[in-house]
Amino acid sequence: MLWNTILLALREIKRNAMRSFLTILGIVIGVGAVITMVTIGGGATAQVQDQIASMGSNLLMVTPGKRLGPGQSSDTVLFKVSDGEAMLRDVSSIAAVAPVSSKSMQAVFGNENWSATVTGSENQYFRVTNRAIRKGRQFNDSELRAGAAVCIVGETVCKKLFGGQEPLGEKIRLEKLSCQVIGILEAKGQSTMGTDQDDIVVIPLRTFQRRISGNQDVSMFQVSVRQGASTEKAQRDIRLLMRERRHLSPSDDDNFNVMDMKEIAEMLTGTTELLTALLSAVAAVSLLVGGIGIMNIMLVSVTERTREIGIRLAIGALEREVLMQFLVEAVVLSSFGGLIGIVLALAASVWLAGVLRVPFVFNAGIVIVAFLFSAAVGVVFGYFPALKAARLDPIDALRHE
Amino acid sequence: MSMTASNQPDNPPFIELQGVTKVYGAGQAAMHALRGIDLRIDEAEFVAVMGPSGSGKSTCMNILGCLDTATAGAYRFKGIDVGELTRNQRTRLRRFYLGFVFQGYNLLSRTSALENVELPLIYRGVSSGERRRQALEALERVGLKEWKSHTPGELSGGQQQRVAIARAIVTEPAVLFADEPTGNLDTARSHEIMDLLTGLNRDQGITIVMVTHEPDMAAYAKRTIHFLDGRVHSDAPNGRTP
Q: How much is the pTM?
């Protein structure tokens, strides 16, 4: 009987192919959007996790400010170079510390002009962040000590400013500072935050402090923990050391953060996941709208087929059989929309993953959930029209023109 | 619910109406469609119901066909008091015992003749192979076996009515209710339909209750009941068929 009812429903849907298609369009778009959002969001999350894993789990970041939440900080007391030296000296599990101060600036060479991140640091920076110099050399001690006007540029800056020209030995201008290119970094690509890690100009920290920031501050430290040593312990030790150096009483909160990559990963994936959830919620609304579309067309269909319902009731169809017929029709219709939505979503996801350069991660869970949801939409929004059909009086229905 | 009440010892009448009234609306606006009908129809009868519009004949047919219930009075079908039944029970009564032929044919549009005839069997839960066999047989009886895949739109009025008759008899009903079956047909087609109905009554013993406006058609029946103002005006056996 159910199989018969499904066949009957399919026949009815085929009979009104165009209308059926327009009816399920809402469901198609809803299911498609939800699955695409979740799949792309999942891909982005996986990519963030991958990149963080590739950076190594032994990296710590020490940043100033209280941890209040993303973008919030107060009573920021910046670091000094001596903080880094103290860490390296007192925390035995630390392998290297790189002080980092950066600022986004215009870099100029000849007629070319490019906005890049200017980072003041030391040679430890290349070790800690795991970057190699492709061509040229690192800073030498006298350059670091004297705050010489030399720089090492990333691949992007190199391309934008010099095009095909040889950059080594040339001078680029960073605002009032003119500095000589002594090295080129190996390309590294996009960072977890989506910024270009090759859009960078590294200069000695002392140069940065004297010529750019005009103070002795350091924005943050990047710390690499000795292989095999516990990052948790290193984190704890750095925290205690910094509390001591900053003379914080036991009741005071930390006014700095020591984050390991896992925490940063959680923070970033948390953001991605939140964004995915929000976008999916918006997409889910279109599923609801699709459901209303189905209800609308089912009501029209019941009115149009009043005579048919009358005939069925007169020759012996029970109320619940008529109810089932229309309910199954609505469910078949909406499930069909769900299936089309799934196919479109997977195609769109593969394409979008390619365009956005995130991995395509097939999420069977969301596909199943979206399909079941679309079927449920059919049940919920098909029930009222089906009930209306089942409750018709056969005499009135047969008289209906 | 027992459907085989005819086996009761006192052997009740096949169809019996006792003091049946039907009132539409209430108070001042109340419309008395039936004002006390007493009627008895036996098995294998062929009854024509006549009367002017508004005389109550259609209302009476709806009650007899278990599509509607009486306001007062009793309708017993094979001894079962139909007034006591629920809507679903009445539906089952129609499903297993009654067949309907309407003036406007009432076939499912865009559906082949065969599928139309199969329809009542679907609700009886007959398997698809058996359904097809019985439907083809019914179509053969009305002479439309070759037209089985045509939709109502591709058939003439007379052919459509014959498909409707096939649909009504495919379940081998105890009673066939025909509501002006020739109302939309020309004379030649009308006589064909009447010959078909007469044959079914004579050869298979199907009880037929037929509403008609045309004395020519009523003459095919064995008995004619005239309705007037919600009452039975006259009820007499017909003379020899023309």
A: 0.70
DSSP 8-state secondary structure symbol assigned to residue B85? S
Q: Please choose, from the candidates A214, A143, A138, the residue with its C-alpha nearest in 3D space to the C-alpha of residue A175.
A: A214
B88 touches chain A (CB under 8 A): yes
Q: Is A400 within 8 Å of chain B by CB?
A: no
Residue A11 CB neighbours (<10 A) = 13
β-strand partners of A341? none
* A-chain residues near B103 (CB < 8 A): none
Measured CA to CA in angstroms, residue A382 lies from A29, A223, A295, A387, A392 at distances of 19, 61, 6, 9, 16
Query: Any idea which architecture B44-57+94-237 has in CATH?
Result: 3-Layer(aba) Sandwich (3.40)
Please state, in angstroms and rounded to a whole number, the distance separating the CA atoms of residues A331 and A11: 14
Chain A nearest-CA residue for B102: A398
Tell me which residue of B217, B213, B214, B221 sits closest to B238, measured CA to CA.
B221
B167 to chain A, closest Cα gap in Å: 9
Tens digit of each residue's pLDDT (9 = 90 or more) over A98-115: 999 988 898 998 888 888
CA A287 from centroid of its chain's CA atoms: 23
pLDDT score recorded for residue B42: 94
Q: Is the Cβ–Cβ distance between B232 and B220 less than 8 Å?
A: no
Residue B68's pLDDT band (cuts 50, 70, 90): very high
Tell me how far CA of residue A209 lies from CA of A77, A157, A214, A319, in angstroms: 16, 22, 5, 84
Question: Among residues 1-20 of chain A, which lie with CB inside 8 Å of chain B?
Answer: 1, 4, 15
B129 to chain A, any CB pair closer than 8 A? The answer is no
Torsional sign, CA B149, B153, B154, B157? positive
Assess A357–B contact: CB distance below 8 Å, yes or no.
no
Mean pLDDT of chain A: 86
* pLDDT at position B132: 94
A394: pLDDT strictly greater than 50: yes
Three-state SS string over A175-210 comes to CCEEEEEEEEECCCCECCCCCECCCEEEEEHHHHHH
Helices (H) and strands (E) in chain B, counts: 7, 10
> Does the pLDDT of residue B226 top 80, yes or no?
yes
Q: Which chain B residues are Cβ-neighbours of A318 within 8 angstroms?
A: 88, 91-92, 123
Are B122 and A4 a contacting pair at CB < 8 A? yes
Q: What residues does B17 pair with on adjacent strands?
A: B39, B75
Q: Does B1 touch chain A (CB under 8 A)?
A: no
Residue-averaged pLDDT of chain B: 90
Is A315 in contact with B88 (Cβ distance < 8 A)?
no
Domain boundaries, chain B: 44-57+94-237
